[in-house]
Amino acid sequence: MIDLNKILTTGASGMVGSYVDFGIKTDSESLDVTNLDEVMRVVRQYRPQAIIHLAAETDVDLCDRDPNHAYSVNGIGVYNIATAALDVGAKLVYVSTAGVFDGEKDCPYTEEDVPSPKNFYGRSKHLGELIVRGMLKDYIIARACWMFGGGMEKDKKFVSKIIKQLNKPEIKAVNDAFGSPTFGKDLVGTLKQLLTDDATGIFHLGNEGVCSRYEVAKFIIETLKPDVEITAVGLDYFPGANRVKNEAVVSEVKLMRPWQEALKEYLETEWKHTIKN
Ligand SMILES: NC(=O)c1ccc[n+]([C@@H]2O[C@H](COP(=O)([O-])OP(=O)(O)OC[C@H]3O[C@@H](n4cnc5c(N)ncnc54)[C@H](OP(=O)(O)O)[C@@H]3O)[C@@H](O)[C@H]2O)c1
After folding, report:
1. 134-149 pLDDT tens trace
2. Which of 58, 135, 184, 272 could be stapled to 82 by a disulfide with Cβ–Cβ 3.0 to 4.6 Å?
């Protein structure tokens, strides 16, 4: 039986880490995952039963501009953590991404689909998966998609970008890229459950359902500021890294609630009080 106090989390000061309310939380100051000596020292000090590895370079455009940095944090960082997990006999939970797929499939990706990443963020996260699968037997690879969470302070992704534009009369959002929005809080809750059940293997942990960015933006506007206009645009409208058309994930096992329920809770509990109507 896993003792939640004996779980060590890396990258815990980020968006997802803000929902980890148990165990030993480390951040880039206390545990730089690219530094093998530091990783071994800290992991040997705490001797965790499990490591939740959240630390990553998550800026997709930065990863495309600087692939060496992406491979260092998202590849070598994982190798170091996996080495330490082996050393102390800890289970490793690696949070990966639907960005390991090429986006060409016309329905949601299952756990059986074969990764074929299109950009350097996806490639570096895929490298992390290969390392985990190659080195360890006792692991969980949890693929998430279009993460939201952390509120005003930590959320730097799509949901907060839309909320920060609510003072404009009109917002544009892409209607030909699809995904499965994932609430960081639900992800952490499900990881806790999987650890308690001593599960192993690959799990797709997006919130249930598939939608476009446009539908997410529309849901945010309707919940927080219904008088704002929304216009649909194509994926090519916004410049940036080589983004994929389809990042939707589905799982054999139903572990996550529908995205609308999760997003509604997030907007109402962490954002509504900040909005002036
Ligand atoms: N965000 C998404 O849409 C998304 C989607 C699917 C999967 N994921 C995965 O989910 C996990 C958590 O992501 P998140 O959304 O919480 O991202 P986040 O807010 O960017 O947090 C990542 C954390 O990793 C830390 N970090 C970066 N380099 C590090 C290093 N060398 N050593 C130790 N820590 C380091 C960062 O700390 P500093 O800020 O101090 O550098 C940051 O606190 C990641 O593995 C990510 O790949 C994210």
Report:
1. 999 999 999 999 999 9
2. 135
CB-CB contact of 73 with 112 (8 Å): no
Ramachandran region, residue 63 (left: φ > 0; alpha: ψ -120 to 50; beta: rest): alpha
- Position 87 scores a pLDDT of 98
231, part of any domain? no
Q: Are 240 and 61 in contact (CB under 8 A)?
A: yes
Quick check: is 228 in a domain? no
pTM higher than 0.70, yes or no? yes
Let me know if residue 186 belongs to a domain: yes
Ligand 1 within 6 A of 223 CB? no
Q: Is the pLDDT of residue 129 over 80?
A: yes
Range of the domain at 11: 4-212+238-272
pLDDT of residue 125 exceeding 90, the answer is yes
Q: What is the pLDDT of residue 252?
A: 86
Q: Is 18 in the pocket of ligand 1 (CB under 6 A)?
A: no
Overall number of domains in the chain: 1
Phi, psi of 24 (to 5 degrees): -100, 120
Question: Does some domain include residue 262?
Answer: yes
CATH number of the domain to which 187 belongs: 3.40.50.720
Q: Whose CA is closest to atom 24 on ligand 1?
A: 55
- Choose one of 58, 80, 161, 247 to mutate for the ligand 1 pocket test, by most ligand atoms within 8 angstroms of C-beta: 58
Distance 54 CA to ligand 1 centre (A): 6
